[in-house]
Amino acid sequence: MILDFERPIKDLEDRISELSRLAGESSELQSEISHLEEALQTAKRRIYANLTPYQRVQVARHPERPNFRAYRDALTEDFYELSGDRLSGDDPAVRGGFAHLRHGGHSVVLVGHDKGADVKSRVESNFGMAHPAGYRKVKRLYELAERFELPVVALVDTPGAFAGKKAEEEGQAWAISGDLMALARAPVPVLSVVIGEGGSGGALAMCVADYVGMLENSYLSVIAPEACASIIFRDSGRAAEAAEAMKITARDLKEHGIIDEVLSEPLGGAHQEPEDTVEAVGRSLDRVLSGLSDTDPAALVESRHERYRRIGTHAAGVG
After folding, report:
1. How far is CA 220 from each of CA 53, 59, 212, 214, rounded to the nearest angstrom?
2. Cα–Cα distance for residue pair 136/244, rounded to 1 Å
3. Which 8-state DSSP code applies to residue 222?
């Protein structure tokens, strides 16, 4: 899949491929290929170093970007999945269970949004948009983490909670608020990493944490840029303008103290070198978990409360 702003890169790659096919022993063509390869690297650095907020949203949505399953399989041993909300059923849009992290050997409760890996699984998982049963399942997992004194690791990647009529009738808002309360009072370390999309309350249900990290081409927002543009401008085509105004990128959120760390991605996005990206997230989780492992539970909860009290505050008397 080629994004619109990547067209110049694709054109150069196609030209290089064609010349390589024709070159043979021609020194003239080989020299031309070398010049084009230099131009290709320059174009990649120029384009990817200057992505707009909406372009980063497009990268975050790339279908080949590593998803929850990729992180689960690469970073954990003995993952034991738990299903169902003990009330109405199971929602495959979110998954979780007990896990043993390869980095550092930490035992954790791992939860995350599952967008699926192909057309069939994406449809089955509703593209990572969970119903109330999914968020009730997540709350159950948070409570198990508290009971067994295990850290919570959450991997966020959702356009948002499912916003259909049935979800509202079944208590979507109550299910998400229950997750927020469970995380706010959990006396165990809570770590959250936004690995792709971080949309609305569906993402927030996994983001009340002691540590929030974001991959540099992910986003976190109360609403998707297209929906915001439809509401504010009455024109979804102005999504790029909305994304710029909303300050939803990892670097914007780090600057405003909402997240703790921006995790670098390979040139072109996480889908270009997924194994390296997953490994980088694993190292960060190990570092943060090791630092929080001996923290007093009461101090953890108080620090978490204070963290969210600080967001959005302004010093009195400024100006």
Report:
1. 11, 13, 11, 9
2. 34
3. S
C-alpha to C-alpha distance for 290 and 105, rounded to whole angstroms: 10
Phi/psi for 132 (5° steps) reads -55, -40
pLDDT in the model for residue 301 = 95
The number of residues making up the chain comes to 319
Q: What is the largest CA-CA distance in the chain?
A: 74
pLDDT tens for each residue of 164-180: 999 999 999 999 999 99
| Domains contained in the chain, number | 2
Residues spanned by the domain of 274: 56-310
Q: What is the Cα–Cα distance from 80 to 100, expressed in whole angstroms?
A: 9
154 beta partners: 111, 192
- Which helix (DSSP H) or strand (DSSP E) does residue 212 occupy? strand 211-215
Q: Return the SS3 of 210.
A: coil
Shared domain for 273 and 303, answered yes or no, is yes
What are residue 195's phi and psi, to 5 degrees? -100, -5
Q: Are strands 219-221 and 261-263 parallel, antiparallel or unpaired?
A: unpaired
